[in-house]
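Researcher: Quick test of sequence recovery. Tokens follow.
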């Protein structure tokens, strides 16, 4: 029947999908899909593993093996070797030759406290004289370090290093002399003077 102007026009809803023109809501298909739990996407990098061989972010690439920087091997400095001078002498004249060598050192400007005299056989006459006053007074002169000091090569372990060591090979067995040579060398700072038989010393060296 015809409608009067006062009556509103009512349309019957028809079941079925909404038309695009009459819809006032955003279609569900246009919303972003929620994340789906599961394996990580290949587009998102995974954090580095603890056992990875590559550099860890925030740590220099050269710091590995517990964070210790790798350093290049530098040549280690070698200890200086004392000069060796051989003065030919027999067992009976070795001490005399040692005294002559000491006089030459002092004349050249060496201070007496820089010289140490060792004997492989009988004690030097100076040492025998000083020991007659007691060992304490004798060894005190070594501690003072103001004069030439004479001692037996067998006591070399008690000696401090001195710039020049004079070794008088005036006796002793071959084993004792062979042991005294490197011991005297270890105590010499710059020079070692050996007074003895060249043939015997060459065989022992």
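Model:
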């Amino acid at each position: 029947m015809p409608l009067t102007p006062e009556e509103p026009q009512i349309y019957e809803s028809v079941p079925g999908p909404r038309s695009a023109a009459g819809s006032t809501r955003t279609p569900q298909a246009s919303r972003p899909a929620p994340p789906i739990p599961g394996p990580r996407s290949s587009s998102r990098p995974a954090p580095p593993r603890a056992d990875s061989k590559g550099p860890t972010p925030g740590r220099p690439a050269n710091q590995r093996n517990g964070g210790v920087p790798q350093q290049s091997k530098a040549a280690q400095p070698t200890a200086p070797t004392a000069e060796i001078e051989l003065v030919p002498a027999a067992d009976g004249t070795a001490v005399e030759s040692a005294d002559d060598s000491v006089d030459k050192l002092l004349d050249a400007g060496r201070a007496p406290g820089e010289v140490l005299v060792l004997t492989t056989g009988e004690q030097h006459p100076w040492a025998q004289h000083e020991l007659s006053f007691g060992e304490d007074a004798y060894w005190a002169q070594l501690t003072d370090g103001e004069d030439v000091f004479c001692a037996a090569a067998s006591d070399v372990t008690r000696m401090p290093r001195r710039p020049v060591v004079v070794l008088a090979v005036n006796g002793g067995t071959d084993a004792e002399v062979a042991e005294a040579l490197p011991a005297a060398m270890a105590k010499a700072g710059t020079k070692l003077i050996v007074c003895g038989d060249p043939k015997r010393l060459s065989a022992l060296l």
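Helices lie at 94-107, 125-131, 135-144, 174-187, 198-204.
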